[in-house]
Amino acid sequence: MMRPTFDLAVYLVLDPGLCAGIGMVETARRAVAGGATMVQLRDKDGGTARMIETGRALKTALAGTGARLIVNDDVAAAVEIGADGIHIGQGDMKATEARRLIGPDAILGLTVETPELAAQADPMLVDYIGAGPVFATPTKLDHKTPVGFDGLATQIAASPVPAVAIGGLKAPHVAAALAAGALGVAVVSAICGQPDPEQAARILRQEVNACRRMS
Ligand code: TZP
Ligand code: MG
Questions:
Q1: Distance from the CA of 78 to the CA of which of 60, 62, 98, 119 falls in 20 to 30 A?
Q2: For 165, phi and psi rounded to 5 degrees?
Q3: Can you tell me the distance from the alpha carbon of 101 to that of 115, in angstroms, rounded to the nearest whole number?
Q4: How close are the terminal C-alpha atoms of the chain, in Å?
Q5: Which ligand is nearest to the CA of 75?
Q6: In a 3-state reduction of DSSP, which class is residue 35?
Q7: DSSP-derived secondary structure letter, 151
Q8: What integer pLDDT is reported at residue 120 of this predicted model?
Q9: Taking Cα atoms as reference points, which of 160, 92, 157 lies closest to residue 120?
């Protein structure tokens, strides 16, 4: 087996609360139909059993779409689900430990909040960084200090691995995020809980595609 290829263009981070209307699986299904390229299962309060149940349903829903399924924090759940990868933050286990547990064939993402942390991302272990937060956001109340697009660019310039930008990003911010060096945008509330998650994802994807064509 080989590590799956992935495209950070439109990276949906699921939130159980914001997805309450139609649920996380249906939100992901519609977002991917609209052009989301990655889906992260992030369920801070769900516990491993609920992660596994939702993750299996997500895996079925995304099968054959080309979108990658990433699990936040919970390596045991990621392995059980057969997810494409895992995403960890600075407060979670070290990248060496995460890589050891998930093996060589899974994608490993790492959140960074400073250029120093970005520079420390080891390309032998880490496949991409989540860089930011660009803006303050009510979606994650304990987020670190927002860095804006200049701070984002500094983080990404320091990183030896590709980056996706996160934190309060909506379609009008895509161009600035990509100009700062991000390969795409990671979003929660720009898709989760939107009246039409498919269309919301489509607009984000069109923005990313348009910016990539111009660069
Ligand atoms: N990490 C940094 S900000 C954030 C996460 C998970 C939440 C982003 O949510 P939104 O709704 O896209 O601002
Ligand atoms: Mg984490």
A1: 119
A2: -90, 145
A3: 27
A4: 33
A5: 2
A6: coil
A7: H
A8: 98
A9: 160
The ipTM estimated for the assembled molecules is: 0.98
**161 CB under 6 A from ligand 1?**
no
Residue 19's nearest CA partner among 189, 186, 200, 170 is 189
> Among the atoms of ligand 1, which is closest to the Cα of residue 89?
1
Beta strands in 22-167 (DSSP E): 38-41, 68-72, 85-88, 107-112, 128-131, 163-166
Q: What is the pTM of this model?
A: 0.98
pLDDT in tens, 174-190: 999 999 999 999 999 99
Annotated binding site: 40-44, 72-73, 92, 111, 137-140, 168, 188-189
Rounded CA gap, 28 and 59, in Å? 10
How many Å apart are CA 12 and CA 2, to the nearest integer? 23
The pLDDT, as a whole number, for residue 1 is 66
Distance 83 CA to ligand 1 centre (A): 21
Q: Is 60 helix (H, G, I), strand (E, B) or coil?
A: helix
| Residue ranges, the chain, pLDDT below 70 | 1
Share in percent of the chain as helix, strand, coil (round to 5): 40, 15, 45
Q: Which of 212, 134, 122 is nearest to 161 (CA)?
A: 122
Q: Parallel, antiparallel, or unpaired for β 38-41 and 85-88?
A: unpaired
The pLDDT value recorded for residue 198 is: 98
Instruction: Please give the structure tokens belonging to residue 36.
Output: 């989301």
User: Can you tell me the distance from the alpha carbon of 149 to that of 134, in angstroms, rounded to the nearest whole number?
Assistant: 6
